[in-house]
Design a protein that fits this description.
11 strands; three-stranded antiparallel β-sheet; eight-stranded mixed β-sheet; 358 residues
Length: 358
């Protein structure tokens, strides 16, 4: 049973914020209060329904214990008690999930990096398929996607593509996509019809603001050079391409898609800041590793997370042992949400189990 005192404190805090907002605080306080109020709204709505259902259950118990209640009334009350008990279980679980510790990055925008892995041309084609899947999914969610840089492969697809995805809850939805994605299919170039296995890696990073990750000028080296295209040909007549090296960690980010050196530097800094932010998040996660046993993946890019088997039309997520025979819909983007929701549910179940054991 959930601590009722904790629930009452949340209700009181919600009412107090409402009163403070009505008192016309200064703009900065109003923004802060509005955010806290909006964050509390979902859990407060469920708490109120929980309390209302508990009150209704009390009234039904009175009917059942009343000697003067007629048979028809008793039967009706018994049925409603059963239904209410089921609803109470659902509401309690809902409240517990809403009260789970939040990932501070869940509401951030995303930087997604897709790279061809083992498998040559086929891996690059698969990387292109994955990126289009995420692009379509972002469109369906109403998110905005912008390509930061792309390295096209000779036969199609990408050696590497990096993009930002901006939208409410983007990181919360996509964070479990990090890892190695494997494809099993017959390449178009394969005359004998043999099934090949190739792979692509996906990294999903929360987009870091300067306030999240401050990078000092003394910690970076910036090199500029002339951008080049396929075969080494010059695609720009000025030194607009930028390579930024983060000296303490050795992380290197290059950017050459824009004609402006200033724009390339800004994009490269955005990617570098997000990689460093995710690196720090990973370090903190590793420190808490003992409490994370059984949760969905770690987001480790070297972890094989999913297989897309074209001959069988199936997609298997190895972290939660889920197989869906909807490959066409998933790779098209409109079926991806079923996989994502299953991963989120499994993650929440692991968190709830950890709380129960504590």
């Amino acid at each position: 049973m959930i601590d009722s005192d904790k629930l009452n404190r949340l209700l009181s805090r919600h009412e107090a914020i409402e009163a403070e907002m009505s008192a016309s605080p200064d703009p900065d306080d109003f923004v802060r209060l509005s955010k806290e109020y909006a964050d509390l709204n979902p859990v407060v709505a469920v708490i109120r329904e929980l309390q209302s259902t508990l009150e209704e259950q009390g009234g039904l118990q009175e009917i059942l214990s009343d000697q003067d209640s007629d048979e028809e009334m008793l039967e009706l009350a018994k049925q409603e008690v059963i239904e209410n008990n089921q609803r109470l279980e659902e509401l309690e679980k809902e409240v517990k999930i809403l009260l789970l510790p939040k990932d501070d990055a869940d509401n951030k925008n995303v930087i997604i990096e897709v790279r061809a892995g083992t498998g040559g041309d086929e891996a690059a084609l698969f990387a292109g398929d994955l990126f289009r899947m995420y692009h379509r999914y972002a469109d369906l969610m109403g998110w905005k996607i912008e390509i930061l840089s792309a390295s096209d492969a000779d036969m199609g697809g990408y050696k590497e593509i990096i993009a930002t995805i901006n939208g409410k809850g983007a990181f919360a939805k996509l964070k479990f996509e990090s890892g190695v994605h494997r494809v099993q299919r017959v390449p178009e170039t394969e005359s004998s019809g043999r099934i090949h296995t190739s792979a692509a890696t996906v990294a999903v990073l929360p987009e870091a603001e300067e306030v999240d990750m401050e990078i000092e000028d003394k910690d970076i080296r910036v090199d500029v050079y002339r951008a080049s295209g396929p075969g080494g040909q010059s695609v720009n007549t000025t030194d607009s391409a930028v390579r930024i090296t983060h000296l303490p960690t050795g992380l290197v980010v290059t950017q050459q898609d824009e004609k402006s050196q200033h724009k390339n530097r800004a994009k490269a800094m955005k990617v570098l800041r997000s990689r460093l932010y995710e690196q720090e998040r990973q370090r903190l996660d590793d420190e808490r590793a003992a409490s994370r046993k059984g949760q969905v993946g770690s987001g480790d890019r070297s972890e094989r997370i999913r297989t897309y088997n074209y001959p069988q039309g199936r997609v298997s997520d190895h972290r939660i042992n889920l197989t869906l025979y909807k490959l066409d819909r998933i790779i098209a983007g409109d079926g991806l949400d079923e996989l994502i929701e299953a991963l989120i549910t499994d993650h929440q179940a692991a968190q709830l189990a950890a709380l129960d054991e504590a």
